[in-house]
Amino acid sequence: MIDMDDLIGDPDFFQPMTIWRRQITYGGNGVETAAPALITPQPLGSIQSGANPEMLRQADLTSVENLITIYTDFRLYTEGTSSSATPPLPFGPVQTDIYGNAVIPTDLVQFKSDIVVFLGDVYEVFLVQDWTTYGAGFIEALARKVSRGQVAQ
User: Fold this and answer.
1) How far apart are alpha carbons 38 and 25 in whole angstroms?
2) 85-138, pLDDT tens digit by residue?
3) Residue of 52, 83, 127, 146 with fewest CB within 10 Å of its CB?
4) CB hemisphere CA count around 52 (13 angstroms)
């Protein structure tokens, strides 16, 4: 296996990426909004134009077009990713309330898909795959091109 840790600082293979992370918040009326935040300092990654669209199909069986493939050791988020500072119990059953329902941490934060800007175009991450065999924490992510209006949603 190739250890990509040696390549991550090499500008021939990895370049800084512009990534917007969108945290979901809820207003007093319960309406969901996404607050975008620019990730700084810019993570390094290798962005490749295109993927094999013949292999990717949407629910209506149409092929996915205008894709980029991203290789990085920065954890990218897809739709519905959540994060909590409360660590899970190391062993034993899930913590429950008196009715047997799982207790959700009060500091749970949810996110929409990350937005990646590449060559002036805007892409939304929709698939993240584990690539730790190429180095600790490496991932491969696929992102599809979206219009700037879709990003605001």
Assistant:
1) 16
2) 666 666 666 677 788 787 766 677 889 999 999 888 899 999 999 888 777 788
3) 52
4) 2
Using pLDDT thresholds of 50, 70 and 90, give the confidence band for residue 150: low
What is the four-CA torsion angle of 96, 101, 107, 113, rounded to 10 degrees? 130
**Secondary structure of residue 119 in the 3-state scheme:** coil
Tokens 């990646």 found at: 116
pTM for the whole structure: 0.74
Cα atoms in the 13 Å half-sphere on the side-chain side of 28: 0
Task: Return all residues near 24 (Cβ < 8 A) that are at least 6 apart.
Answer: 32, 33, 34, 109, 110, 111, 112
Domain ranges of the chain: 4-85+96-151
The string of DSSP codes covering 19-65 is EEEEEEEE-TT--EEEEEEE-SSPPEEEEEE---GGG-B-TTSPBP-
To which H or E segment does residue 18 belong? strand 18-26
Q: Share the mean pLDDT of the chain.
A: 79
Instruction: Classify domain 4-85+96-151 by CATH architecture.
Output: Beta Barrel (2.40)
